[in-house]
Design goal:
The chain is mostly helical and about 90 residues long. Helix content is about 60%, strand content about 5%. It starts with 9 loop residues before the first strand and ends with a helix.
Amino acid sequence: EAIRAGVPVVLTDVVGNRDVVDDGVHGVVVAPDDPAAAAAAVLGLLEDPDRGRALAGAARERLLERFDVRRMGEAHARLYGAPAASAAPAR
């Protein structure tokens, strides 16, 4: 939601987040057990709004390219449709 809203993000380095954000490209990724690093990352983005805007813009582009509902639906249809079609009984 933050990415869609154009807000730069600070995420912890856990499964799922790694699929959305590359550190320093689409946002800032910190260790999950390092609240000081998370705080420093947030403060860094507040102190450098140009960097925050650049990260937010790159993240939004990636969101639209990879995580658009229609694209994800098409990808799932391809993923699950191909095996289902090949397993269908011959007529």
